[in-house]
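# nightly structure sweep
# worker-07 picked up a monomer target from the shared queue
# config: single-sequence mode, recycle default, output format = structure tokens
# input follows
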Amino acid sequence: MEGGLLILVEDLLTMFAIYLIITLSLNLENGYAGIPNFGKVLAVAGGAFVAGSFPGRLMAYLMGFDTGIGYVNDNSRIVTLITRALEGNLLPSIALFFITIGVAAAVGAALGLLASYPAIRLREDYLAMTLLAMGEGIRIIGQNFYPLVGGTVGIDVPDPFAYFEDLRYITVMFVFLAIALLVMYYSEHLVRSPLGRVLRAMRDDEVAASSLGKNVVHLRMKVLAVGSALGAIGGALYAFYTCNCRAAAYHRFDWTFWPWVAMMLGGASNNVGVALGVLVFLATRYSITLLKVQLAPFVPFDVVWLDSLLFGMALILILMFKPEGLLREKPTHTISRKKIETRMKDISGNREANK
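# output follows
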């Protein structure tokens, strides 16, 4: 029982780290910049496809295996040999992991820029629909372009954490949580900088921001690039966690709708609220999964749809009665209050001295 509980907690916290990264990136795009990104799965799937295609082929090249279509056709055997080679080599495993994360972030940023060109000048409703279509498009490409990640069959991903053997999952949990904390620190630093105020001004009134000399189009492009890079990191982490990449697994429900629910639940434009929302969301989903058998006699439909229906209803209720979420948006000061007070005292002292 204790072992099963430990596994559950490890899985919960690992998924919390992955969803926190993705939801923070969505909060940057929508909560702070006002970009209705209903195609978040575009970046997430892009990062996952990098993890599914890049590290295995890189190691296959170094070990003398076929890196073309033969790698996909004989994927299971080749990846097994690669993982065995990584089991006794910590430094190459670490290097492979972080190089892949860097490549995933770069590809995610490129996808964000690519999505911004045809969509960025559109109004919010048309922008949302365009991004939604692009998000759906990458899944279709992944499913139908076999050499990328094995089409509908999928592809195995080398395990850079195989070195830790029995401690693999707890190591993954701590590494992913550390990366999520770094992303949260970066997001907080970004929105508390002068750029954060500009993003809020653009979100609240584009015309006013433009009249003050701010290039709204370029700002949107930059935000989509940064947000997509962070989302791609989340997608790559999920592929490494599961050690496989199937294009069908990256659909808009899990990787667009759920992050939106978590963000709205915790509070848009509040990174701490987003973290709380993700935790509450995942804890509730895991609880429903554990209790599905017990709840089956009491619901008039298949319990498989229980969490989807509950969270759909929850989102509607949040929008109706508490649109600010669990934690409302708070003003962020570019300079700390203490520094402002000290500076004001210095100014007052200089005025008195000049008299």
